[in-house]
Protein 1
Amino acid sequence: MLSVVYGAGLSGLDGFLITIECSGQRNLPALNIVGLPDLAVREAKERIRAAADNSGLPIPEMELILNLAPADKRKEGSSLDLSMLVSILQCGGIIPREIGMRDKCFLGELSLSGEVRKIRGVLNMTLCAKEAGIKEIYVPVENAAEAAAVEGITVYGTPSVRALVDHLKGEDPLAAAVPIVPDFADFAGGVDFSEVRGQAQAKRAMEIAAAGAHNLLLVGPPGSGKSMLAKRFPTIMPPLSFAESVEITKIHSVAGTLESGSGLITQRPFRAPHHTMSAPSLVGGGKIPTPGELALAHGGVLFLDELPEYPRIVTESLRQPLEDGAVTITRAAGRCTFPCRVTMIAAMNPCPCGNHGSGQQPCTCSTEMRHRYLAKISGPLLDRIDMHIRVSAVSFSEMSDTTPGESSAAIRERVIRAREFAARRFAGVTPVPNGALSPAQTREMCTPDAAGLSVMKMAMEKLGLSARGYDRLLRVARTIADLAGSETVTASHVAEAIQMRSLDRDMT
Ligand SMILES: Nc1ncnc2c1ncn2[C@@H]1O[C@H](COP(=O)(O)OP(=O)(O)O)[C@@H](O)[C@H]1O
Ligand SMILES: [Mg+2]
């Protein structure tokens, strides 16, 4: 007696289909699993037996062999429980043999009572099942909404193995999951730029950062609104496209950070890992590589508050991924790459006591202490930050002013228009935001006019900009021109870009 059922596994962000064959021999009762299962899959035996017993679905009294194919790929975790039990039940005739399994796929972990528990990576595995021609997929109820985002495959949220068997036999059909229509324009975060008082230059810098996907550092005393500004940054970034949303949701599904019952992610991520975090939690890792904070921020914001407090090993491990927009994890079991195109926003106090230049409290730090503090973030990481902005404490008159500031929606409109304006420079090729232009593209697209160039020259001489810093300045100036709808980068655009690099002045 033989049955064949499909399940799925994960390799990095990609799902792959797994064939589960079950063969039963008249012999002493036994259950063996072959085909490169890991410990969790081997342990499934005990869960499967208990789940079957407690659901009133007897496991056939035979010598059963479960074979997982392809045999060369490691099968991990507990997501194969359901497909293995279905395979056994059909082998034993509990699920009638006439019920075709060729177009069905089963995903889920089993509890001892036979409930189907939520698992990670359901969206990813549903995408691969659909590609492989599967027509019906059975997933844990809590994962049904993410699976339903995939078009062209019918999704059934499956509460228990008993409910599944009743459905397959046509006795008590399950309802197919209805996809949630994603609303990308909605600000579900509930925060808005209109709540931020004053801070005109910081808001302007954020608009530029959103328009060109530039990294930004906010320097100011505690309580000046740095965290408040950073949290609102995703609301002025361009809305997600469907493809971006799928890419982001896949990462969060694999990481297990997707909320139960949620469909596609509609808001750009905002991740704020604390400075006590380890380098692996930033880049991702584990025996089975899972995405870290960098990948979880993909398409959105990575916020590093109190930047000088981050250990050097952590900031160093940021450099390459920020440059490449991807992070690669190498393990004995293989390599996997997660995308991490993020806008990095960092915040810091201007000095150890936090009051330098605040204009309100006197600073108690010596010049040397202040320089040592700034030096903690100097060098390669600072080189990757396009703009550094001073924020000062909000004045009483600004705080007591009740007229609302400009809304996120209004700023986002300008950001979208600037991105569209910039996209016209990429005849035929996929546009990249200005912040991600290559050195050659920077020369080609961002070179200012003659007056702009002489302002650049002055800045180079006075601020001692590095070659990288020079390119960053050009790209920010290009974005400022895009916001103004100007084909040429002029002296005033360059001058404003220089204004947005306040630390260059502080450090000299
Ligand atoms: N510019 C501002 N406009 C409105 N409220 C502000 C502003 N700056 C600070 N606040 C208030 O002060 C609180 C602390 O600000 P926060 O963003 O945490 O400051 P920081 O991160 O610079 O220390 C905010 O939650 C907010 O209520
Ligand atoms: Mg803060």
Protein 2
Amino acid sequence: MAENKPSRVGKTKNLTKGFKPASGQKSTMARRSDRFLTQLSEYKRVSLVTHVNPDPDSLGSMMGLAHLIEAKLGIPTRLTRDGLISRAENRAMVELLDIELEPIEGITWEAGEAVVMVDSQPNTGRHHLGDDVPLVAVIDHHDTPGNLEEIEFVDVRRSLGATCSLVSSYLREQEVEPTSRLATALLYGIETELCGYPREASPLDDKALIHLYPLANKDLIARIRNARLPQTYFNGLLQGLQNSFIYDRLIISWVDDLPQPEMAAEVVDFLIRFEEVDWALCAGVHKNNLILSLRAAVADAEAGDLLSKVVGKLGRAGGHDRRAGGLIPLTSVSENAIENIQSELRKRLLKVMHIEECRGQRLVSKRDILQNLHT
Ligand SMILES: [Mn+2]
């Protein structure tokens, strides 16, 4: 990665764009936002990248940093998109807030361009970035460690609920007031990371919410949160409910035909509220992948580590303390091949959770499913 870094622009010239921390700040530059801006001050352009299938936290974070960079450094920025945005709420966010995203596959990096990664870390298997990406900074809150050795600026805070909270703290430190549109994006980004159950939040998240709430457009947030849903959503949810099996304090839901990859998370967000379990996993087939989503209703669950141990070399996984996701590429989507991988996954999961191998008990019995079916 290092040898392909573009040369900085005008290092010896008199810089008009050079960043100086606000007066009154110690020259030791204790504030991370000062160091972040200083690191970027000599580039011609800054591009923001994030993980595949960007979610509200990654979209809001890209928008917030772009706004900060443009306001304080006067450097042009661009936001990118890796993969698709398919969840209805996330699509509504992009549409209603008019977020312009350049598809990552069509991008060529220019000399003098810096790339900032948000809500993710390099080499975690969550991007389609080439080796030539001029990555200068990484700002994230995931437990899953990435390869950060070559990165000049790193701010990873695992105790934070949302990357948007970290970005909001940069804006506050630099006294850059977010526009209503930006405040809406940041608030929704934080809300989606925090307001589910189990909640993983810190005082910095609360501070950001308090600051952003009066500035945000609550009508737009309501429209995003309650985005209209396609028929495939109900089909996917029904499949999940019909194929949910309980093993002690764990429930596993198999979806043979996931309408879109993020649906796995929606299924477990629903199932983790079941009072009889502490863990919920959804494994759904989407295209040639088995998409995994895990939730834990107990503290110090280390869900990210646990899922990554379970998946091992079959694929990749990671996440937070109580929320995790993963992906297993399927070599075949035949019924047999899928059943094999499902049974291997179940075996591994029961083992790491110290649950005895047993026949799973259906969440909804077959008899009930059939009896209540109107024809
Ligand atoms: Mn996030």
